[in-house]
C-alpha cells in the first residue's frame, strides 16, 4: 500500500475513534482554546532545560535520558551544519533533484494524500521545490543518504553506545504553516531546525488518557492522539483542559530533544521550514566496551558528519522507504543482555508493558519459581526477534 494512501486511511480511522472517544457536552459557552490550535487551552506551565553550551555524552544521558525528562532545547547546536547554507531550493533541485522523498498534506490530521510527480505520497526534490510554494504538500521523509555529509551529529550524541544507536534520519520541508499530529514516538529523537522556525507542544507520557490517545497509544510507547491539534474541540475533548504542557520555539540552528514515549506536536511558522530528525534507540547505558570513554571527555568531542555513523535504516533515495520500522539495535541488545544475564542496555518499558499487559503471566519477585513461564516467554520472544533480525535481508523481500 502506498504511504500516502495508508496515511489517508489512518486519518479516517483516527477521526472514527475520535467520534467514539469524544465526550459530548452542550455548547452553551465555548471553553478556553475551543477550535484553536493545541496550546491555547491554558498557559504553558512546564519548563524544560535550555542548553547553550557543549555538554558531554555523560551529562546528556544522565540529565535527559536516564531521568526520563520530557525534553531539552539545545540552542545553536546545529549552527555549523553545512545544510544550513547549502540546502536552498536551488541546490536541492540541482544537486539532489533525483532523490525521491515521501510527501503528505501540510496539516497532518486533515491529510488525504498529497500527489507528487511519482504518484500519491511520492515526489522528487526537483519536482517538489518546483511548485510546493503554491501547493498543499510537504516533505516528511527519510533523508537520502547522499545528503548525510551536510548533517553534523553533536558530540554528546556521537559517543559510546549513543553513537551506535542511530536508527533513522528524517527530513521535513514545507512552505510554512504545517501542523503535525500530537503523537508519541518509540524512539528518542533530536530535531534540528535547518531553516525557518517551529513551535512545539510537549506533554508528559502520563497524560495519555487525558490527551485521548487510543488504547494502543496508551499501553504502548508510540501512537497518535485522537485530538485534531490544528483545531481542538474542547467540548468533545474536555479532559484536555487540565493537561499541563511545555511550549518551545526553535530558530535556525536550534535542536530539540524529545525522549521516547512523551507526546509532541509541531507547528511551522509562516515561512519556508526545513528540519532534520535524528532518531536513536532507547539506550539504558553508555556502553561497556571502552568506546564510552569519549562520553566523559572534557571538553566534549566535536560534532562529526552523519556519514561517519552507521544508521540502521538508511534511505538510498529510491525504492522502499523504511520509515518507522523496528529498532534492531534495541532488540539485539535486549537479546544479548537477557541471554548473558547482564543488566539491560536498553530501556525495557515497551517490552515489559507488552508482556505484562497483553500476556496473562504472573510476575512475582518474591517467588521466582513462578516466573519460569514468564522467563520462557521472554526468551522465546527474543530468540524469534534475533532470528528475524539475522534474516532481515531475506525478510525485506516480503515486508
Q: Can you put this structure into words, describing what you see?
A:
This protein has 399 residues and is α+β, with helices and mostly antiparallel strands. It has helices at residues 3-21, 57-66, 83-86, 89-95, 125-131, 160-163, 215-219, 328-340, 349-358, 372-390, 392-395; strands at residues 49-51, 71-74, 100-104, 115-116, 119-120, 122-124, 138-142, 152-153, 166-174, 183-184, 188-195, 198-203, 223-224, 246-250, 255-258, 263-268, 273-280, 304-305. Helix 2 links the parallel strand 1 and strand 2 (71-74). The longest helix is centred in the N-terminal third of the chain and has 19 residues, at 3-21. It starts with a helix and ends with a helix. Residues 1-6, 17-21, 349-374 and 392-399 have low confidence and may be disordered.
